[in-house]
Amino acid sequence: MTVSDVGASFDYICANPASSIDAACIVETQAHREEPSIGNPADLDGLVDQNLCSNVSSMQTSVADGFAFNKEQLTCPVVIEIFCGSARLTASLKEVGIRDAFGVDHKLDKAVATAKRLDLTVESEQRVLLQWLASPLVVGIFLAPPCGTCSLARNIKLRDATGKIIPGPKPLRSAEWPEGLPGLGPRDKERVSAANKLYDFLAILVDLAHDKGLLVVVENPRSSIFWLTRFWKKIKAPLQYSAHQACAYGGERPKWTVLAWNHPAFSPISLCCPGESDVHSHKPWGLVQSESGFHFSTSEETAYPRGLAHAIARVFASILSVHGWKPPLEQMQEQPDVSLRSMRAIATAQPKASKMPPVVREHKSVVLITGPFTAFATAPVECMQRLKQNWNIPPSCQANVDRLPPGAQLLRTTPLRSNGGLLQTKQSGVGVFEQAWGIHSI
Asked: Rounded distance, CA 296 to CA 264, Å?
């Protein structure tokens, strides 16, 4: 099955909402029992593969899987979690031994692991990510594009405790208009346009990464209109699909999510809800009241359940292991209780009252260099690689050292901005960039 099959399947389901139990399940907030969706699992044969409700937990992979990783990749593998949000997957990747994994997002206030700030609606910052993707150490990418403008929950009529309809968020897209409804107001139009820029760039990243022989996984809710957009449909990479419910991996609600991937080892991530019981219960959908007021229950489901993040991370690790990667043995052992506390510890964000020994950081210091991009092009390594010999910092650049020692690792090259514009050097039209190098010792 290829991505071209997705559109037809969703087009039919969205055009026939009356046939969907999920879409009709919400009458009053108090009665919410299921996530609003554009179809039942049985309706999604054209979207996900046949193991939709498989309970297979193995992660079988083979060296005949069509992937080939070089010595550098298997020595220091890097997985980039794009649109990382809380970066729980990055924390889990570090936990299983992929220590150089990092996340990327425009806001990092909720990140529990290493993450770098990039606004991927901006072309210059897209180029930075493309530069990172060109590193010979990258083995895969995981992308979870924002789905707020694509949510079908916007179609639900909200009611208060008396049953009276109350104002709620308006639909911004539909199956007929997946790139945005006509007649949107300026603010909503801007939101949809920004999301579309991200989706367009995602399509470029997916095809580029697949062509480079990298592992690719894309995540979004099963009911998201994202899957119907022309940006998703234009992807040429031969992706396959599987679906799972969050509660089967420790979530509090039976949220349906689809993963699109280019390696079959990800297909077993397809567990379904075992059914409510004394040991398995769900929180309700709809409006939720807290000390700060009312908010939508969907906002509580944005971060991956820790069990799901760890399951995805272990698949990345198992694929690399089959190809010759040597992870720390203790980090590949089964860990049934993966707590947020342990995630923060592995990701070097220690809790205040931790009894665990402090995590030793990979670099003793970070050297920042500023200067024109053309000067940085003289560096003998690419992003995430390490110097094999001394490198004299170009005279057109500024830094607190004159040269970098062997072993220094190029972490990033980022354009510097002031008030939204690119800073300029004394040479007209030359932008100022900053490089960050991780140093063991100077």
From this structure: 34
